Every structure is written in structure tokens, then in C-alpha cells.
Amino acid sequence: MPELSPEQEANRKSLLKSSIIGGIIIGVIVAAIAYWMLGSQTGTIRALGALGSGALVAAAMAWKNFRSSAKSARCAKCGKAFTVSRTDRSETLTTSQNREERKEQDDGSLKITTWTEEEYDVVETYTCSACGNVTTKEFTTTKRKDEKSTVKKPEGKKGNK
């Protein structure tokens, strides 16, 4: 690998750290599932099976995530590795609507959830630190705001709160 500038090295380390953390989280989940699935085995086999499968999945996911992130951090114009990073993000509110969801509960009561759904146009700007090439990514996202839930007891039934 060619010599990286301090900025490129910092970007590489940040991507690697994020990939490792993500891999570990997924590995722990897989290990817990494996431990549960090996419930009929002896304690040693359960532990080793869970540890082995969790470690294998963690390593594979960390490697996959890092390779994907590294590919995204390579400049399309100059081809230098770990030079592209997000330099700006702007969100513009486009719509705001009140929403309501009603779910009947097992005891006959009604759970009513209300919220404001906001839709945003998002523009992210990415800049190459080596050649200055600027690219943008545009997409739409939604957010829930001021979510509240209440439960209404069925008519004609009295009970404790």
C-alpha cells in the first residue's frame, strides 16, 4: 500500500474502527444465537461453538464492512484511497403531516399513537482531500416527531387505571 498522508491515515483508522465495532456487535448476536441453539450440548461445546461462530462472523463482517467503506472513500477522479469524506449535510423540511395509528389490545382496549411525520430532502456533500473533487448525494428521509400513545378502555367496562 502506498504511503498515506496523516489525513488519509486518520480516515482509514476511523473506517477500520467503525467496521470492527459493527463486526463485534453482529458477532456477539450470532454467538448468543449459537449458544442458545446448542442448548442440548455440554457446556464446553456450547461455549466453544458460540465463541467460534461469533468470532468467525465478527471477523467476516468487519472485513466486508471495511472493504465497502474503503471503496466509498476512494476518489473517483484521482483514484487515491481514503481521501473522500463527507464535508456537508443539509436537510430541508418538505412536508409535515399529523399521523395516527390505532391498535386493538388483547384486553379490548384501544392503543392510539399519534405523531407528526416530517419528510426531508437531504443533500450530502463529499470532498476529496487530495484533488478537491466534490460529489453530492441527494435523497429523501422521514422522521417521527412528538410521538404520544394513549390507551382507551372499552366502553361500558370499568376498571382500575
Low-confidence stretches: none
Question: What is the tally of helical segments?
Answer: 2
**Global Rg:** 25 Å
Question: Can you tell me the number of structural domains?
Answer: 2
Structural class of the secondary elements? alpha+beta
Helical percent range?
25-40%
List keywords for this structure.
alpha+beta, 2 domains, three-stranded antiparallel β-sheet, 39% helix
TL;DR of this structure?
This protein is α+β, with helices and mostly antiparallel strands and 161 residues long.
Characterization of the model:
- The chain is an alpha+beta fold.
- The protein has 2 domains: 6-72, no CATH class; 84-152, no CATH class.
- It contains 2 helices and 3 strands, in the order H-H-E-E-E.
- The chain has helices spanning 6-37, 43-72; strands at residues 84-104, 110-128, 134-152.
- The protein has a 3-stranded antiparallel β-sheet with strand order 1-2-3, with no helix packed on it.
